[in-house]
Every structure is written in C-alpha cells, then in structure tokens.
Amino acid sequence: MTRWSAIAPKGRAAPARPDGLREFYENPAVPVASGAERSRRQALMLARALGPVRAGARPGTVLDIGCGDGSAAATASAALPGHRIVGVDWSQDALCRAAARIPYVVRGELGNAGLPFADGAADAVLFSEVIEHLVDPDAALDELRRVLRPGGHLMLSTPNLAAWYNRGLLLAGVQPVFSEVSMRGIHGRPGTQVVGHLRLYTARALRGFLAACGFEVVRIAGAPYHDVPRPLRPVDRAACHLPSLASILLVHARRRRE
C-alpha cells in the first residue's frame, strides 16, 4: 500500500473534505509499503518485459508512480541494472524516505496539473497498490497512458476483492479483507488498520477496465499478502498459481499502439 492523493483529478468534482484525505495519507502511521514478495515478483515481471540494456542503446525510464518509501522502486532497480528508476509521489515525507533508497525522486500527482513528465516520456510505469486509493481511476489511467510511450509497459498491482479467503468471508456474511467502510476505524472485517482503500477489483474487472483505458493486458499473475496469518501462508502462496484467487493481483499491460 502506498500513500497517494485520493483527491479528484482536474476537471472532476472533488470529494468531500479533500484536506482530510490529504492529512490521512500524510500521516506517518499510515503504511507506505506492502509486502516484499509482491515487490520482488513485480520487479521480475518488469525485468522480463524491458530486458537488459543493450550496448549502445539508451537505458529505459521507469516511473514508480506513488512510490511511497521507495522500497518497491529499490527492488525493481536491483532487477533492472542500467535502467533509470524515478520515484514519484506527492507526499514529501514519503519522498524523503524514498530518496534514501533510490537516486531519483520527483514530487508529482495524478490530479490537478498532472504528472510533471512529457507525453511518451516513460518506457514503463510501476503502479503498485495505488489504484485502490483513487477517487477517479479512469483519469489516473488516462494520465499514465499519456506519459507512457506507445507499446510502453504498465506494471500494476492491487489487492484482489475475490481472494480465496474473501470468498469464504462473504459467504459467512463478513466484510471482505481489503475493503473499508470508514476512514476512522475497522468495522465488520478482520484486521485492525485503516489504509484508505476506496475501490477494489477482481481479475476480470481489472482486465476489462484496463482494456477500456487503452491498454492491452499481457499477463495477470498473483502474489501473496504479507499480513496473512502464518498458518495460512502456504495456502496463500498456493493460491498464487490461480491469479483469480490470489491475495494480490499483478498485471503486466502495454499501452496500445495507435
């Protein structure tokens, strides 16, 4: 989970009390990183997509949008020697922490004036567990598509509404994990920490949404959730072999060429 602006992008109506949302995501107690295994799997997917930097060729530019503390970008950097990783976040506190892990950090956000990059500037975008925090994911994907070159790679991860345990919880009448009904406390579901999830996706919904936003889905994979109770972790890892049941959805998509 990363800290990212939940206010509406330009041209859209803002939600109630946007200042309160900003304060929530700037709170140091709100987590800015998710599990290391998710970051590792996502980095390997990206490394396979970009490949090594060839002699005489320019390095690829990878933007980690909503980089949080930079842990995911640092993992990606280790798997992508020679490529340039740029962490982007609107939280100054998060950027200060990210700067200790990666050489390039830029303050920017998906709303208001948009990201501070030219059209087609990026070869790849990491979008790690950000989309579930957005009021307007459609406008966010439009902006990511703008900064990606045609054929550029989008590596998106997000919690899976249809994770194996959520299916059982819903059958029992229990609020599913990852979903939240309040910004002040947890009600009706396992867990104790509010993290500000506004939207949740299944693999099928995410595939359709990305296609509607101008992306071609190359692959959907699964990743385990670091907060699953220890006795259930072998089951959670096994569920990754069937992404529609996995805790975390990892998506490799490409910007369609026009």
UniProtKB/TrEMBL annotation:
<dbReference type="GO" id="GO:0032259">
    <property type="term" value="P:methylation"/>
</dbReference>
<keyword id="KW-0808">Transferase</keyword>
<protein>
    <submittedName>
        <fullName>S-adenosylmethionine-dependent methyltransferase</fullName>
        <ecNumber>2.1.1.-</ecNumber>
    </submittedName>
</protein>
<dbReference type="Pfam" id="PF13489">
    <property type="entry name" value="Methyltransf_23"/>
</dbReference>
<keyword id="KW-0489">Methyltransferase</keyword>
<dbReference type="InterPro" id="IPR029063">
    <property type="entry name" value="SAM-dependent_MTases_sf"/>
</dbReference>
<dbReference type="GO" id="GO:0008168">
    <property type="term" value="F:methyltransferase activity"/>
</dbReference>
